[in-house]
Amino acid sequence: MVKDITRDIKQLDHAKRHLTTSITTLNHLHMLAGGVDSLEAMTRRRQYGEVANLLQGVVNVLEHFNKYMGIPQIRQLSERVKAAQNELGQQILADFEEAFPSQGTKRPGGPSNVLRDACLVANVLDPRIKQEIIKKFIKQHLSEYLVLFQENQDVAWLDKIDRRYAWIKRQLVDYEEKYGRMFPQEWCMTERIAVEFCHVTRTELSKIMRTRAKEIEVKLLLFAIQRTTNFEGLLAKRFSGCTLGDGTVKKPEVPPPSTNPFLEDEAGTETDEIVIEKSDAEKPKKPKAPDNPFHGIVSKCFEPHLYVYIESQDKNLSELIDRFVADFKAQGPPKPNVDEGGAVLPSCADLFVYYKKCMVQCSQLSTGEPMIALTTIFQKYLREYAWKILSGNLPKTTSSSSGLTITSLLKEKEGSEVAKFTLEELCLICSILSTAEYCLATTQQLEEKLKEKVDASLVERINLTGETDTFSIVISNSIQLLVQDLDAACDPALTAMSKMQWQNVEHVGDQSPYVTSVILHIKQNVPIIRDNLASTRKYFTQFCIKFANSFIPKFINHLFKCKPISMVGAEQLLLDTHSLKMVLLDLPSIGSQVVRKAPASYTRIVVKGMTRAEMILKVVMAPHEPPVVFVDNYIKLLADCSTDTFQKILDMKGLKRSEQSSMLDLFRQRLPAPPSGAESTGSLSLSTPTPEQESSRIRKLEKLIKKRL
């Protein structure tokens, strides 16, 4: 029933919709036909102002007839519109050619309303028309530039590069005054002229520099680059870079926030100077904005010639190193500075300030291969500084008066003079050590900064590990010299110990003279070294550890030379050993008003080594009868399965060879059997007592000493 009632209404709705569509289409057709007629007429009369609005309307209306192109009349109208568009395009190009001829002597005409309206029409036409207009206008506008700055002209060379940039500035001002309103604002014609000028300039400069490459000097090159980067910075302030194509200029990545490349954590008086120098080195960076889209648009042409700059830096750094060497010889080593700690040589700060200046300057010129070349130069002179200035000035281990080496000192007779470093020499070694540590840390910072400055694809080629290793070697050699000096100073005392007739000692007294001599040398050297390494505590700890590792085994070896030993003599040696142990435990803070707890790593070494010496003497003091008890006691106390060590103990006790032979046989029989599969490591496991064993032995030793005293 509802369908029957609404059937007529439905038919009327369809009829209305069809009628509306037909009327609308007929109206569009009328508008299209009239618009095409008007468009053709206005085109002939060059009424571009009216054409701009009409053409857009006709194109919009024509879109409604896309589905009716099968109708001949509609297709004909569409073809007439296309023909009108083509005619407009050719006509506008001809008008611009007439107003701005690319050839001939006719001067370019001024702006006109006709051309301004023609640009509005070009916006609606094929984009190629607009591009052609822009191309011809810019070419005509820069034609004078190509004539004035031809390759054979005097003003074309790098020393007058300022004139190029002054010329384009005048041209841009002139364009704004004359033609600023002729072209639509969205065409960005001023920027397009500037960008095309940059491309032309880069090409022309590349050609002339290739031709006159031998005339390029580093000052001239840097002058041209500075003026060019300043101009690129000016462009960045004036323009947005919206006209730069994807393949034209690569927009650089924004660098991370600035951090202090070097020297920011270093203590000492040189820090303030470094900060000042650093800010000076950054000054050339100011013209270049961090996000400058025009960076390199002209200055890229200088990159193939940056080898001139790199060679210049190589020469400058060579002269700088030579000057450092000469200054050191002229001024001599730094004065002892016991109160403030070892001073870092000022030359290293000068070197890294210069490095930073070069790095910043080169990164402005290029972040590609020239940065890699500069890094190679840096590496070369870091190594030269390490060997010529640091290692080359370390005191030699030879006495100037006697000409004896440290190795010969080991064979000195008791009471001989020992060739020791003077106070100035000790301070110099500490100063060189501090300088090497400073260079090591700063070289690591330099490597990180170079990686930040260079292109991402070249980061892997920046590696200063070899140079940091070189400074580590200087540090190690310096520590070794300090250890050798103190070690050699103690040698005569140890020699005197081994020469004493210990079997004739009748009573136990105060510490022996040789102990007093060792303590005296320690008190003379260690405070000086500690105060001069105040800024590098970890290396002072290394010195203490290396000295303990050198002195204690040597002391034990000299103990074995003390033979034969009586019971009283062994007690005196035990007292001396305990005195030395206490001094060694206190060595890191000896002679210091501020008492610090010795590092645990150092304490473990001293306790382990000197406890072994005490256990040796305790075994010597023990009766060798019955032999089984003596052998078991030796194995328990020393946990040493070496027959050589056992032989030395027997020699110290003064046993006859026949007695020693039976003792050695018994020792071999009483040795504990090593675990299966671990025969080769049995002695190692025995020679490593547990902390509980060490603690127990220390307590026993203290009781023994108190009893004897």
From TrEMBL:
Q: Does the keyword Protein transport apply?
A: yes
Q: Where in the cell is it found?
A: Endosome membrane; Golgi apparatus, trans-Golgi network membrane; Recycling endosome
Q: Which keywords label this protein? A: Coiled coil, Endosome, Golgi apparatus, Membrane, Protein transport, Transport
Q: Which residues form the Vps53 C-terminal domain?
A: 571-655
InterPro entries in the record: Vps53, Vps53_C, Vps53_C_sf, Vps53_N
Q: Which Pfam families does the entry mention?
A: VPS53_C, Vps53_N
Give start-end ranges for the coiled-coil region(s): none
Every copy of the Vps53 N-terminal domain together lies at 1-328
Q: Which GO terms describe its biological process?
A: lysosomal transport; protein transport; retrograde transport, endosome to Golgi
| Recorded topology in the membrane | Peripheral membrane protein
> Where is it mainly found?
membrane
Q: Which cellular components does GO assign to this protein? A: cytosol; endosome membrane; GARP complex; recycling endosome
Compositionally biased intervals (Low complexity) = 680-691
Q: Please tell me whether the keyword Transport is annotated for this protein.
A: yes
Q: Where is this region: Disordered?
A: 248-267, 670-699
Report the family membership: Belongs to the VPS53 family.
Query: What name is this protein filed under?
Result: Vacuolar protein sorting-associated protein 53 homolog
Q: Which organism is it from?
A: Anser cygnoides (Swan goose)
Q: What is the lineage of its organism?
A: Eukaryota, Metazoa, Chordata, Craniata, Vertebrata
